[in-house]
Amino acid sequence: MMADDDKKPKEEVEQLVYDFKCSSCAMEEKAHYKGKNPPFSRNLSLKYPSYVMKDPFSPPGKGEILVLGSDCSVCGISICINKECSFFYLKMYCIPCALNLNETFPIEVKSKLLQIKK
Amino acid sequence: MGRSPSPGRSNYYKRRRSRSRDRDRHKVRKTSPNPSTSKHVEEEFSFTSYKRELNKIILYSSESNTVANSLDDFWVFLKKYEATLKKAGKPIVDHGPEENSDEPSTKFSKFHCINFTSSMKYMDTVYDERERRKLDKNLFQAFLNIGSIYIDFKNKEKFTKLRKLRQAQKDLPVAKYRNEIVSAVQNERVVVVAGDTGCGKSTQVPQYLHEAGFSNIACTQPRRIACVSLSKRVAYEMLTQFESKVGYQIRFEKSKTADTKICFITEGLLLRQMSSENLPNYDVIILDEVHERHLMGDFLLGVLKCLIHSRNDIKLVLMSATINIKLFEDYFSAESAAVIQVPGRLFPIELSYKPVLIDDKPKRDDRLDPQPYVQIMQLIDSKYSKDERGDLLVFMSGVQEITAICDAAQQYAEKTKNWIVLPLHSGLSLAEQDKVFDYPPERVRKCIVSTNIAETSVTIDGIRFVVDSGKVKEMSYDSTTKMQRLKEFWISKASADQRKGRAGRTGPGVCYRIYSEQQYSDMEPFSTPEVSRVPLASLLLLMSSLGVNDVRRFPFLDAPPEEAVENALLELKQHGALTSNEKLTSLGRTLSKLPVEVCLSKALVLGAVTLPPHKRDSALALAAALGIRAIYTTRAHRDFECENARQPDESDHGDPLTLLSLYCAWLREKRDTRGGRAWCRRRGIEEQRLYELTKLAAQLRSLLQDNNLMETQEPESMSSAERALRHGQMKQLKDMRRQYKQNAAKDLKNKKHLKVDSWEIVDDKSNEDDEVLDIRDIEFRMTNDAQRIQALIAGSSASSGRDLIMLKVVLCRALYPQVAVADNFNHHKSTAEQLYHTWSKPFVFLHPTSYFGKQPRVLQLTEADIQKDTPAGYETRLPLSSKHQILCYLSLLETTKPYIVNSMRMPAAQTLLLLAHSIDTNIGFTRIICDAWLLLEFPYPETGLNLLLKAVKLRQRWDALINRRLLDATPTKTVESELEKQNLPKISYEEVQHELSCDISSYMISDVSYTIKRLLPGDLKTIYQGADESHPTVEPNPFDENFECKPHEKKGGVFVTDNVVFNCVVDTNWSYSSYEEAYNIPWTCPNCELTVCLSPIERLQHKHFTCSLKEDKKIATPQTTREIKPNAKEYTCDNCKQTLYMTPVEILKHKKSCLKKSD
């Protein structure tokens, strides 16, 4: 997963790059962080470990992040946050896994999933 | 409580759709709003009541986040969110799920659907007395939950933006060829990617290659603006808009850093990088738009073709439109170029030929008939519903034609009220040009009437109709006369197709051609490449400096005409840039480094060498002013008020000095007031050009400094108060710049809308916005502080005296042989009919917008200037005067007539004798021919000889100064040159410069009467003695002791210097008798009082070599030989008014002797 992108010696942390690829829609981006507490935005945390990039649309140093997706909590494939690819309820699920687990969710979640199924 | 229980599903935030609906339906654990004071329970709860406290917490939080970054937007969101909850009958304060409730099945919370947790620290804010409520920690927690929702919402927004961007990239036609392109570049040396506009090659190919592992990619563009916009776009697409991975490098600025992987660069700059010996380590060089066939692009192709043979590590990618791919393929056939064709994204275009029939043509052929064009507007109105959008683009050949069409179209538009007519050509101000991008109102179409600028350079969206006149005005160049010609031609097939294609960029379109299908098939397949149409001197010089040994054998894509190459080489030799066997001289090397025309770079070098340090800015400003495009708008010469406003700053010396004087006046305006925009508008000047001038001058200065031809200025010391002032100023300027950029970003979102009726007044309106921040002014002030501006003014002004004369002489020497003499009959003629003759091109006119075009009398002799009583025996029909003037000019341009452009007046004989490449004289120095073209006759004895002698000596001194300076500037490698340096007298430059300029300026105003006559080919046959006559050599040689005289092979006579041939011009009756007379009357030497009969040359020899008082004479004029001591100072004697450089002791001595003399 990890790949060295740059050969700059000074910024050790920044060298870490995760090649994120959504297995559902094939979206491919480079993420700067994977986990729950992105270091570039300290008063934000995530409930579920995700692939995070520094927001490419805002100037650096502003603590803006862009969460791309996560690994499915059931099957482990990576999926992006697009609602056709994943479903979030406390954890990240790819759509097939979420549908499989349909019965275990609260009623509100079920109806939501039902909509997605349609 | 006003909470309506309605199950309304309206969105709380406009852009949110499905998600909000979903969540709103979920039951939320009820918590009481619980404001601390029960009194207000009845009142609706809203977090907005706590806005102050909350903002405080958010902003004081040490780390910023999405909420803090867009606080205003967040509050808008929050209000809408609360409103939606209220409508759905749900509580606003929702504390979310209990901690540790990890059982998703048991308790549902909408916050479980959100990945984000905002974790700002709660801060105990001060209790607000007035409001009597307090934000407690629980409430804050609930607030943070809304913050999380907001962050999630924003994240989705950004995510969608990213997806859309990727989708758009994927949809580009070029995307399908990605792998093919990448593998071709990896496996081949040269790859040609051909694809039409809109296929995405310019933005995508560099990215593909970068992602494939190439890490130093150069991508050339013919236009500066494209470099900037492409680098911005590509950086955005690579998600690195805030880094410097993608950069650009253009003439005046660069954003390239060590991190830059992809650099967009102008063709010219890449070429200069190649000459600088340290070509950046590119692994791929992409040449974009090669089909445009610009001079630099063509040359670059040739250079790279050679380069890839010596550098195996460089890959070459050519990108072009699908025109003439074969040409490039063949050119790189030895390198076996891979060709990849990418289809464009063009919609179908309906083509219709609408030739103007001969019968319809008005009687006068030279007038353009706008009717066919208006008819097409009518046709569009009748055929297409006004509800269907789509604008019209009309291609015309030139500004006049555009104006004619615009006027007619405007008349039509006033009747129908559904057209907005806009001209587009490069003469318009940038603001006026930008108008073509604005939106018309509903049911109104834009009619853009443009030159071929809209063919490739400017792309306007929304064009559905194209009208093609089939004509183009193109510059061509006659290298023999050095005249540029702007002539109308039929366009090429490629050009016609390109024009047609402009109709099908956004949807199906229609193209009307105002010519026949037959005409189309008669057209040339491709346009003439620039290399065959422009002056080549700069290019050939650049080639030489790049080490191209034989420019004639350079592998051009299309070889330029042989004659053009030869003439350009001759020009370079005349400038001393090349030796007679075409080797680059050190002057040539220096000239090649300056990015302006050869003659202007020469003016710069001469200026740096000759002018005193504090006046070198004038040469820089002058060269820059002549090097940029014309500063005048189209209004400048039509509007009487503009002409009047400029008048006080006009210089009667001519256009170059008027430019300089206007520039100084503008600088003064900048110093004294804010702005300058209004000042420029009143004078019909495009302010943008003056900023460019300033930047170019600064760039030229630093290049001269790099080449050791100008001292690097020491940072002028500032007092602490000044520094503080400047610091404050900079801060303010930076704030203003930031503000401007924010405004600009906003403006971009809501593009301007055009109005139908206000067409005529729009100009004034958009220009009246002086209140609006002027980014160029801000940037100008950031780089130039008050001191700098003051120094520029002081350095650039040359309004009178020696400074002015020297500046003129420097420029004239650089432009020589571009001089013109007046026709003999000019004084009978009207202003418009004033005729001039140049060496290569007789019968040219003064350009009507030039200073002398308006004031030709300044150039003519007045009655008082003409000497009536000629010396005995001298008879001539030509006026005898000491006031003859010639014009020195920058260029010749033929439009309707051949014109002299940018001219300056100079005293005739003085200039010619000082600068002519060849000077021939008779035995008595009374008849002198300059450059086998102009005959000067000096009827008074010795006047011609003295003037010529002075000129020769000055020229020798000047050349010595230039050579010494260039020698010192070039780091020497050989021992001999080091020794040579040491042997040179150690007189300071300033001293030599000062004396030279004193002597040149007094020489230029010397009062000598003469006639001037232009020689015709017939005259030249009989005016020379010919080599048959025997011609004794001059020994010793008073012109140059070390020069060994040798006979001239054709003209007869002998060379006494490199360029002066003595005794080769035949005598007429008067000149012979004046010579006889001179010989027969005993002559008394003014120094030794020896009286003998001597010929003029013998007298010279006596004075120089045999006169016993020669030594004394030298002492009498000590300036030329005296050595300057280190402690010498400039000193002006009160008594004799001389300015001298002396040590304190010498000053005392001088004072003493001076007083004695006057006693």
Automatic annotation (TrEMBL), chain A:
<comment type="similarity">
    <text>Belongs to the CDPF1 family.</text>
</comment>
<dbReference type="InterPro" id="IPR042426">
    <property type="entry name" value="CDPF1"/>
</dbReference>
<dbReference type="Pfam" id="PF10170">
    <property type="entry name" value="C6_DPF"/>
</dbReference>
<dbReference type="InterPro" id="IPR018785">
    <property type="entry name" value="CDPF1_dom"/>
</dbReference>
<protein>
    <recommendedName>
        <fullName>Cysteine-rich DPF motif domain-containing protein 1</fullName>
    </recommendedName>
</protein>
<feature type="domain" description="Cysteine-rich DPF motif">
    <location>
        <begin position="20"/>
        <end position="113"/>
    </location>
</feature>
From TrEMBL, chain B:
<keyword id="KW-0378">Hydrolase</keyword>
<dbReference type="InterPro" id="IPR001650">
    <property type="entry name" value="Helicase_C-like"/>
</dbReference>
<feature type="coiled-coil region">
    <location>
        <begin position="693"/>
        <end position="750"/>
    </location>
</feature>
<dbReference type="InterPro" id="IPR027417">
    <property type="entry name" value="P-loop_NTPase"/>
</dbReference>
<dbReference type="GO" id="GO:0004386">
    <property type="term" value="F:helicase activity"/>
</dbReference>
<dbReference type="GO" id="GO:0005524">
    <property type="term" value="F:ATP binding"/>
</dbReference>
<feature type="domain" description="Helicase C-terminal">
    <location>
        <begin position="379"/>
        <end position="547"/>
    </location>
</feature>
<keyword id="KW-0547">Nucleotide-binding</keyword>
<keyword id="KW-0067">ATP-binding</keyword>
<dbReference type="GO" id="GO:0003723">
    <property type="term" value="F:RNA binding"/>
</dbReference>
<protein>
    <recommendedName>
        <fullName>ATP-dependent RNA helicase DHX34</fullName>
    </recommendedName>
</protein>
<dbReference type="Pfam" id="PF24485">
    <property type="entry name" value="zf-C2H2_DHX34"/>
</dbReference>
<keyword id="KW-0175">Coiled coil</keyword>
<dbReference type="InterPro" id="IPR056382">
    <property type="entry name" value="DHX34_Znf-C2H2"/>
</dbReference>
<dbReference type="InterPro" id="IPR011545">
    <property type="entry name" value="DEAD/DEAH_box_helicase_dom"/>
</dbReference>
<feature type="region of interest" description="Disordered">
    <location>
        <begin position="1"/>
        <end position="41"/>
    </location>
</feature>
<dbReference type="InterPro" id="IPR014001">
    <property type="entry name" value="Helicase_ATP-bd"/>
</dbReference>
<feature type="domain" description="Helicase ATP-binding">
    <location>
        <begin position="182"/>
        <end position="341"/>
    </location>
</feature>
<dbReference type="Pfam" id="PF00270">
    <property type="entry name" value="DEAD"/>
</dbReference>
<dbReference type="Pfam" id="PF04408">
    <property type="entry name" value="WHD_HA2"/>
</dbReference>
<dbReference type="InterPro" id="IPR048333">
    <property type="entry name" value="HA2_WH"/>
</dbReference>
<dbReference type="InterPro" id="IPR007502">
    <property type="entry name" value="Helicase-assoc_dom"/>
</dbReference>
